[in-house]
Amino acid sequence: MPATLSDLDAWLRRYAATIHDQVAYLTELDAAVGDADHGTNMDRGMQKVVGVLDSESFEAADALFKKVGMTLVSAVGGASGPLYGTFFLRVGTGIGTVSEVDAETLGAGLRAGVEGVLARGKAELGDKTMYDAWAPALEAYDGAEGDIGDRLTAAADAAAQARDDTAGLVARKGRASYLGERSAGHVDPGAASTVMLLEAARDTLS
Amino acid sequence: MKKLINDPADVVAESLRGVEAAHRDHVRVDHDNRIVYRRDTPRAGKVGLVSGGGSGHEPMHGGFVGVGMLDAACAGEVFTSPVPDQMMAATETVDGGAGVLHIVKNYTGDVMNFDMAAELAGDVEVRSVVTNDDVAVQDSTFTAGRRGVGATVLLEKIVGAAAEEGRTLDDVHALAVRVNESARSMGVALTSCTVPSAGKPTFELADDEIEVGIGIHGEPGRERKPLAPARDVAAMLVEPVLADLPHQRGDSVIAFVNGMGGTPLIEQYLMFNEVTKLLDQAGLTIARSLVGSYMTSLEMAGCSVTLLRCDDELVRLWDAPVNTPGLRWGA
Fold first, then answer.
1. Min Cα separation B27/chain A (Å)
2. For the segment A32-50, what is each residue's pLDDT rounded down to a tens digit?
3. Binding-face residues of B in 6-45 toward A, CB within 8 A
4. Residue B163's closest CA among B209, B223, B98?
5. Residues B291, B255: Cα–Cα separation, whole Å
6. Whether B102 is catalytic
């Protein structure tokens, strides 16, 4: 069954709630390799997104995601703001002017979003960034059979595994890269928040 | 956490209220956009200088807004870069028809947000300089590159003087690039800082340990070492700076010992004394100096050393009048 605009709304709200619950966890991950603000920054941004969802209505998925992207760009700051902001802006472009999203369309949206993240962050696989969670997630999504729920389950599982694997990597982007070898042994906070986004999608778009 | 705050969420907003109340003669503050403006900006024909970054580094950058330095500073959340909306608003407001220079420290978030602002800026001609003077970071394609730290203070002063003289955007930009390329820095932390929203120290450091090669956001340094006498700590900072800064015996430098927020002036001057001995050994002349807490990392104890190789022009611009809350002379 395709996802409706109200499902997409539920996805974003679920993500906001998860981030809010996990502020301390994300900040702790960030303190180990960065500057201890990923949780609070994402929480500030997603609470703004909830405010937008409460006060505005959207006719199509692209308008919704573009607004979400701009809201995050304007509210988050740091590296997460431009990266998550660009992600949602491009998801909107990739999905297009539709009011229902099937598995194919969502896949196209996610791919466009991740390409935006790559263009903005100039990361490569293995740099210990959110892209390390996204790359296997997209592959799993495309490789999975079935409806949106089955595909998102596969994507979220792959992303979770990849998130755990980032602990073994030496960071080459972002503030964690200043640590060099000392960044190994810690999970990347961006990969962790990416898994939360996919798990929220799995739980709301099925 | 033991801080003079009300609510961690209100720290930046309430501090900006205080900045405005304390420095009405110099600045006005746009509280919606969190921008500190020079009172008399825009000035026709003057290149506008816009900088900004996370809060928690005071007086950087809001304290350097005024005659002879910045036209506007965008304040982010604590240790978080500001957002493109702020930079766009600042850019449009300070443009006096001669264009605007963005002064950006090389941190991933600052660079990305300023990039987005420059892409989205309307008709204003915008150039950017990204400072990257921190020799603690290996500069390679496999990292985000060197951080922009202490040299940013010196650059804002020198480029601010040039903009005040009415030079073109091209001139001001070229000068900014030259200052950045002529400066190197290295820092050390004796304690962690505590980000108000996190509520606890960013890293744990034993009483007999120091972090060498730190940035300005509580991010850990290049390596952890045992605490040593000041002369040895000074060598840990000055040697890698000199190893990286192209120079010859007989060259002149502007020497800057910067307190990280929790180190008193007596120790900063003691460190400056050690730095002068090391520079003397290296055959370098200190043309000008700056000692004090200008680019802090909340209450972190420690300091950084910045050396800027200078010529007569840079010294003349350094000496030019400046009148800002955080730096003032000759005016």
1. 24
2. 887 778 999 999 999 999 9
3. none
4. B98
5. 8
6. no
